[in-house]
Amino acid sequence: LNCFWMAIDPKYPTDIFKNTERNGRFPNYDYLRLYYVGYGGHHNTQTRFRKYNGLGERPLLPQHDLNRSEVMITPNKTMKIQIVTLGNRTQYIRDGEVIFDFTDQEPYHHGWFGFRTVDNHMTVDNFKVTRLIPGEGVDPHPPLMHTGAYDEGYSIRQISVGTAPAMHAYMDICPESPNGDLITYFEFEDKIPGWGRVAVANRDGSDVRYVSDRVRGGDHDATRQQWIDDEHLIYGIEDEEWSVIVNLKDKTTRKVQGSIGMVSEINGKGLTHNNFPPSKYGKNGRPSEVMIMNLEKGTLQVLLNQDEMIPMHPRRDIITDPKWKGMGVFKHPKWSPDGKQFFWVYMLEIKGTDTKLVKSALLADQHGKNIRYVSEVGQHPMWSGNENLVSYIRQEGFEHRDNPTAQDVTLHALDGRGDHVLIPNALGILGSLSPDGKLFASDIHDWPEKGRHAVILYDVASGNYRVLVHMRAGVDDPENAMHPHPSWSRDGKGIYFNASDAGASRVYFADLSGFTFRPIDRR
Predict the structure, then answer these.
(1) Which of 109, 274, 385, 522 has its CA 20 to 30 A from that of 144?
(2) Torsion-angle region of residue 148: left (phi > 0), alpha (psi -120 to 50) or beta?
């Protein structure tokens, strides 16, 4: 009498029947995420409960491996089976007796129920599903993420202070100071987006102090607060084209032109692009431009606009089509780790859709010279060393909820060698490579259940992944605007990320110093 419940296929979360790799053989189902009971009888002399994790693993705890005669099927005897799932607890009950009672730190709350039969003459009668009303003191939506140690040798701790909503900047902007002693993040007063202050603290989150005036932070990257050097940091002002530099030593501040995108700690310059703030430009806006910020002088160096880019672009026929006039924008300027060059993205998309007609990387040296086209790129490109870019390239038919693995993490060589798939069929949205290039961390939304986020860690060499944490979408985040943005520590031994499991975004740190990628256990 075998059955499973809360079943989801991580490759196709919205359609469990879409995966053509399954053909009815039991091992084909190992990669589903589910709870399973095999109730013994006939040739099967074991009654077992397992939690399948979606990676091919289905660990068996000793207390869930039973072989007593009283927990076996009696031929030709009717049994009443009840399965209860509520909060972080699931039970399997036979004729009123609880056979399995499992409390799950990362419970499953949504998915399919199914029977599995083999060499079986079972008859099912009076099958029904009932929604339970939680009793007093029962949390139907318990936290999915916990702080402290995890089984695979890593641990998680909260970095931001208390219960206030907080956020670090971006997946390729390390919140640590260059010497690794301090961190910076943005603390919101009550909701995201909203008012708050830039915070600086020790690396473990202690001794927090606030270094900005009361300013507004966005729901994606707050104020893009980041370090210039060990004694100075910079943050941008939402919908304004200026930033503020903070001197931590003498506590002075000064404004500079441009809303900061990214600072190079090597050359001390910033990068920005204009954001067409309605407060300044009205409905007409102005042509998109990329600029180098001279932080010492507080001035801007404009590189080029779209019209000046067109002659060097191989897809200029699309860009100059009258249908798309004025729709292209420059975004995401990023310094190389050595500060000698930077890239930015030119994007032309159909308004109101996710359809990208053109999404290209352009490259310039640190002085804004020798500008050239690199290649078409995918989702949120970033640097891999000083000679390559890396991004998610989506396969034809990709839909984030329907088939989230229909994309490849791809390396784009700057020297003209073309693209190379780094991790095929990879989950994720915003990813970043570890400093040594061996691991790839990414976040993902609404996976495998709607309303859940996760931080995923890939081993680049094997393509295997682990889910470091699951978390719920925040109560104030119905559109999942908050991104975990996993960002590597400078020593590559940990990951900073935003998590909303406790109801609002806060900043956490995953300490990976004791973590190793163990082989998948498919027993």
Answers:
(1) 522
(2) left
Q: How far apart are CA 212 and CA 46, in angstroms?
A: 63
Give the DSSP letter string of 454-522.
EEEEEETTT--EEEEEEEEPPTT-TT-------EE-TTSSEEEEEE-TTSS-EEEEEE-TT---PPP--
pLDDT tens for each residue of 138-171: 888 888 899 999 988 999 999 999 899 999 999 9
**Residue 143 covered by a domain:** no
CATH of the domain at 23: 2.60.120
Considering only CA atoms, which of 16, 17, 49, 15 is closest in space to residue 35? 49
Domain limits at 50? Answer: 2-116
Q: What are phi and psi of 278, to 5 degrees?
A: -60, -30
Domain count, the chain: 1
DSSP 145-179: --SEE-TTS-EEEE-S-TTS-EE--BTTB-SB-TT
Burial environment of residue 487 by CB neighbours within 10 A (0 to 12, 13 to 18, 19 or more): buried
Q: Please state whether beta strands 81-86 and 89-94 pair in parallel, antiparallel, or not at all (unpaired).
A: antiparallel
Would you say the pTM of this structure is higher than 0.70? yes
Q: What is the pLDDT of residues 38-96, one digit of tens each?
A: 999 888 899 999 999 999 889 999 999 999 999 999 989 999 999 999 999 999 999 99
Residue 286's pLDDT is 67
Whole-angstrom Cα distance, residue 101 to residue 86? Answer: 12
